[in-house]
């Protein structure tokens, strides 16, 4: 039973990897514990979003990923 955590954009650089596996179920606190201190600090920022199973969460602290889900960590989008 696993959840895939996908790091996108600058979060990929901080994590030093594209993705990682976590044991399901995975909640917000479990996610913060899994990703390391630097990435966790970024995830706490309001500008960073979290998507689970293809849906961006309105409240990322309500994360509850189940077996087979993909959790994408979405850095802020920059315009230009």
Automatic annotation (TrEMBL):
Gene3D superfamilies: 3.10.20.30. It comes from the Bacteria. SUPFAM superfamilies: MoaD/ThiS. InterPro entries: Beta-grasp_dom_sf, Mopterin_synth/thiamin_S_b, ThiS/MoaD-like. Pfam families: ThiS. This is Molybdenum cofactor biosynthesis protein MoaD. It comes from Altererythrobacter epoxidivorans.
